[in-house]
Design a protein that fits this description.
This protein has about 425 residues and is mainly beta. It is built from 7 helices and 31 strands. The model is unreliable at about 1-15 (pLDDT under 50).
């Protein structure tokens, strides 16, 4: 340890020793935290003239106080002989940190990624996202978790605060590329929509009522979509609907919504609201409900034709759905008549739309749930796809239990109703993606 100047008392001839004046010690130079015990060097210090006590050494960065007391026959320059409290300091070391990665990519298989921060000391780690609509971030200790929200890019800024023994280092960034689905349903391919459904996370990106344009072609019943493409929207009516019966990790859709004004529509043809046996949107070509939904012309002819009218990329992601219906008909309200079918294209039931039973077999609701779209209070009224000013009656797959000739419908006012099976009415099919 270096000493400062020392005043040594002279030898006098008097009877009393002389008193020597000394200066108060001060820290010489600087100390920086190094993890070891350190003691300062002092200017104006000589152990023969002053005694040091108090905090004469330390390890952590900070301010310490040493106590200096003059030895006998020595006094401070102010003439006092009392203790002097002198502060000294260990400065913080320069902070630094490293990251386990400088870039992350998120997708449906990896919706979250973690980043490890390595830094000396105990400076608090924090992080922020430049675009929380794409990715959010949370921190636990030195682990940063990046969670994908939607398609896009973002930058995560990582900060380490000053700690006990280290200064705050400069911030660092991590780039995020999110290949997750877009939150705008129509901006996603059918394959991406299916992948989100299969992953069980579709509801993280989209909401009931969201719609997507689908191009149709060909002829269904008496309705031709023409040689050129014809588009309408399918919209989400539920996620994981009735999953214990109909399967989980799914999105249920229904046609349709108008591309022009987003009104709920049903397909109608030139035979609308007339009876007959020719091709049209009829439940049966004769005025009976024998065989119920299972044996109906609608299920066996119209629905498969509509499936074929869909583009290939949509047909590839539509899966068969287990639906329970009265599959016997004949005018009896008998529970045993409610059985299951497996359908890729189907009509909704009375209970799935209305949430209550009016005309259907009373046992159907034991296997069904109302779709969230209608449970949420959305209108049950559908307009003709080619005449937005006119509401139409639209078919349901439930038989009219009290009649041997009818099936349930939704009226032009949105209420429960029933019609004779050989009427051509509005066609608003559903399907499941999973």
């Amino acid at each position: 340890m270096a000493y400062g100047p020392v005043n040594v008392p002279g030898s006098g001839t008097g009877s009393s020793p002389s008193v020597t004046t000394i200066e108060v010690p001060v820290q010489h130079g600087s100390l920086t935290y190094n993890g070891e015990v350190q003691a300062p060097l002092w200017d104006n210090y000589n152990p023969n003239t002053v005694t040091v006590t108090g905090e004469s050494s330390g390890t952590n960065a900070g301010t310490y106080t040493a106590i200096f007391t003059p030895n006998p026959n020595f006094q401070w320059s102010d003439g006092s002989i009392f203790q002097k409290y002198v502060t000294w300091e260990i400065q913080k070391a320069q902070g630094s940190f490293s990251l386990s990665t400088t870039g992350v990519t998120l997708d449906l298989s990896n919706m979250t990624k973690t980043i490890t921060v390595t830094r000396p000391g105990n400076g608090t780690v924090s992080a922020s996202s430049s675009n929380t609509s794409v990715a959010t971030v949370s921190v636990s200790g030195t682990t940063i978790t990046v969670r994908g929200v939607a398609k896009g890019s973002a930058t995560i800024t990582v900060t380490v605060a000053a700690g006990t023994n280290h200064t705050a280092p400069a911030n660092k960034t991590v780039s995020v590329t999110s290949n997750l689905p877009s939150k705008t349903l129509s901006e996603n391919t059918p394959a991406v929509i299916q992948a989100a459904a299969k992953a069980g996370v579709a509801a993280n990106f989209w909401s009931v009522g969201d719609a997507v344009l689908i191009t149709l072609s060909g002829t269904v019943g008496d309705l031709s979509f023409g040689a050129s493409s014809w588009t309408t929207k399918a919209f989400i009516i539920g996620f994981n609907h009735n999953s214990t019966v109909e399967g989980s990790n799914s999105i249920h859709f229904q046609f349709g919504k108008s591309n022009a004004n987003n009104k709920d529509v049903a397909f109608v043809d030139s035979k609308y609201n007339t009876t007959g046996s020719n091709a049209a949107f009829r439940m049966n070509t004769t005025n009976v409900n024998t065989g119920g939904w299972n044996d109906s012309y609608m299920r066996k002819t119209i629905c498969p034709a509509f499936l074929n009218a869909l583009p290939t990329d949509w047909r590839n992601i539509i899966v068969a759905c287990t639906k329970h219906s009265d599959n016997t008909g004949g005018g009896k309200d008998t529970a045993s008549q409610v059985t299951s079918t497996s359908d890729k294209i189907w009509l909704l039931s009375e209970f799935e739309v209305q949430g209550k039973r009016s005309y259907a077999n009373s046992a159907e609701q034991n296997y069904q749930k109302q779709y969230d779209y209608y449970k949420n209070g959305n209108s049950k009224i559908k307009y003709k796809h080619d005449d937005m000013g006119s509401a139409c009656h639209w078919w349901l797959r439930s038989v009219y239990a009290a009649s041997a000739a009818g099936f349930c419908t939704v009226s032009t006012g949105g209420g429960a109703n029933a019609h004779h099976a050989y009427y051509s009415l509005g066609f608003a099919p559903g399907f499941k993606v999973a």
